[in-house]
Amino acid sequence: MTRREALRVVGGGMLLAAAPGCSVWSVGDAATSPWRTVGAGAEPRLRALSYALLAPNPHNLQSWVADVRRPGEIVLSVDTARLLPMTDPPGRQITIGQGTFLELLEQALRAQGLAPRTVLFPEGEFGVVPDERPVARLTLARTEPDRDPLLDEVPRRHTNRSPYLPEPVAARDLAALLATAIPAEVRADGTLDAGLRGRIAALAAQGFEVETRTERTFRETVKVLRVGTSEIDRHRDGLAVTGFAPWLGRKLGLLDEKGLMDPNGRGVKQALADAQRQADTAQGWVWLSTAGNSRREQVLTGRAYVRLQLAATRLGLAWHPMSQLLQEYPEMSALQGRLLETLGFPGGGATAQMLARIGHAAPAGPSARRDLSAIVRS
Do both 167 and 52 map to the same domain? Predict the structure, then answer.
């Protein structure tokens, strides 16, 4: 194969999305093994943590540290080596990711008859950026098992980045989704209206383009791309790129960081086209907001977010966050203002925390996860 032929194959098949695959260019068994062994083990806290490990999180960095060195206690902190300073300067999304972890952890503990008494930020909220102070301290006491039905959906909950089918989302399903019990401090709204859907889709695609065309933010994403089984299994985090064409491009040296960062390259053009299809095929949108923007509210947003995604899984709905518009860096501010106006947020009012598209699609495969031992201090 000539270089020109290889470029044509790679450019035509580039897909910056996690998807099930096969052979040497897919997500391998090692990287996805935590999805199959969830709930295993002799120690109740570790069994619960195996559920929490499967929580959705920004860029799949898995920025969690769980300290179990004291009996009857779990202390959750941020792994400050796994932040996103360019796309998430204040660490708001990383903090939301702490909330998704905490929600699944508490569900799994209660299912085993361990009642957690959870204190958020016991040493105070961190300020400008996340630091090593605890996000939560959980003290455990024996009680009767109390299993949340949403816990059963955890091994099936996968973010689905594929284009969605033209099958409409039923109004009753959106109503059921928005009726999911979430923390009182978090508000969930959504729409199936074609006009509003289209306006949000246009803005979401533009937001993705701003992030992609802004060199420092796109480089942060490119650095966590894992192409093919060997890279995915070696890192077991980040954004998996599967499929024969990108795997071949990586092997031929055509998809290195320099090539991917080329603003006029095929990779960038394909990524933008993919994002446009993702937004355009959304059959509905859901967004979460809070009255303020404290670290506590961000954690509670994460708890609400994962509960809604689990409920969507239970309803047979595909779910995919497209929250680039809500990121806090200067290049995004104008578009963000247009989104907030579109969603009906008054100036200086509530904080929009997350935006996700919903619809119907073929099932997505699991994303890579590190071994539980990588996040546990024992």
Answer: no
Q: Are residues 169 and 313 in the same domain?
A: yes
Determine, yes or no, domain membership for 168. Answer: yes
Range of the domain at 289: 3-16+158-359
Same domain flag for 220 and 169: yes
Q: What is the pLDDT of residues 160-199, one digit of tens each?
A: 999 999 999 999 999 999 999 999 999 999 999 999 999 9
Q: What is the DSSP string of 122-187?
A: TT----SS--SS-SEEEEEEE------GGGGGGGG-----SPPPSPPPPHHHHHHHHTS---TTEE
Q: How far apart are CA 170 and CA 279, in angstroms?
A: 19
DSSP track, 295-358: HHHHHHHHHHHHHHHHHHHHTT-EEEE--GGG--SGGGHHHHHHHHHHHTPPTTSPEEEEEEEE
**Angle (CA) 2 6 12, round 5°:** 150
- The model carries a pTM of 0.92
> How many C-beta neighbours within 10 Å does residue 233 have?
17
CB 298 within 8 A of CB 91: no
Q: Please list the residues that pair with 289 across neighbouring strands.
A: 187, 352
- The reply to whether 301 falls in a domain is yes
- Contact present, 359 and 283 (Cβ < 8 Å): yes
Could you give the CA distance from residue 44 to residue 248 in angstroms, rounded to a whole number?
A: 43
Place of tokens 């806290």: 45
Task: For residue 364, tell me if it sits in a domain.
Answer: no
Q: Which structure tokens are listed for 171?
A: 């109004």
Taking alpha carbons only, the member of 335, 258, 302 closest to residue 102 is 302
Residue 93 sits in a domain of what CATH number?
Answer: 3.40.109.10
Strand partners, 140: 116
R_g over Cα of the chain: 20
Say how many domains are in the chain.
2
Are residues 212 and 339 located together in one domain of the fold?
yes
pLDDT digits (tens, 9 = 90+) for 238-286: 998 887 777 777 777 767 788 888 888 888 998 999 999 999 999 999 9
CA pair distance 68, 378, nearest whole angstrom? 5
Tokens of 179: 């009726």
